[in-house]
Amino acid sequence: MLNWSIKGNASARNAAAGGTTAVAPPPLEPQKPKKTKIALALGGGAARGWAHIGVLRALDEAEIEVSMIAGTSIGALVGGCYLAGKLDELEAFARSLTMRRIASLLDLTIGGGGLLGGMRLTKRMQEHLQGLMIEDLPKPFVAVAAELKSGHEVWIESGHLITALRASYALPGIFEPVNCNNRTLIDGALVNPVPVSVCRAYEQPLVVAANLHYDLFGRSAVVKHRAGELKDVSDAPPKDRHRLGLTGVMVQAFNIIQDRISRARLAGDPPDLALHPRLNDIGLSEFHRAGEAIERGYEETKARINDLKRLQETFTR
Q: Pfam families from the entry (predicted)?
């Protein structure tokens, strides 16, 4: 009370002397703590990987900011296009795919390291990503690949974006390996299907993973079986003939490998939150079902937004 009186008398004297009245500065508003950004680990899964587009759409809609992206296989493709500002173009391309159009993009090669050369798809990427370097992206980005000769896990964190994406989804036997700086690179899902460990290595406090194989139940079971008499498949009834063809067998075998490896790696280094879109009915080669996959990725992420925001509050510093 005494201090207030003195200040008042001083103000009155200043006014009487023709001076200006001192005005107290407005009180400072308390600053809201900054929300922790999330690091995204986008897993491999071939055609199921279009679900990553829906995941990113839902995060943007909820204004949840991404600090970095580590991607394997199609996860690298979607994540790289997102950081390059080309997600709209990628989604339009994915939704436009039909069985006939997919066939037109495949360039069959004879005697190479894969059934498909991949150059037609690469040309499509060049239309939007030509000359873009990973260092040019606004956030850190890592594409995971595997070195064919040594089996090493390779983290591509700089250099040409198209080369990194192409190496990360070079599915063995399907797409030809990518030769990059004296290394022969193939699909990163062989070594790290859901690259949570990459985000951890970059010291990210909050890591969210999109695992596209979670609902493939039964893959980890052990079954005791009795061997019957060996018969020619052609002798079996039509309903029992499960002839997938060379490509189908290779892709399905690769799917089993991814699932087994991701279970082991995520058990040892789990994310802070995992997104599990329901995609078990979408085949690995059914790229024409992009609309369904995108919607399911969106729905799963929307359902977990409150959990994400709660995690952000927990990690706020």
A: Patatin
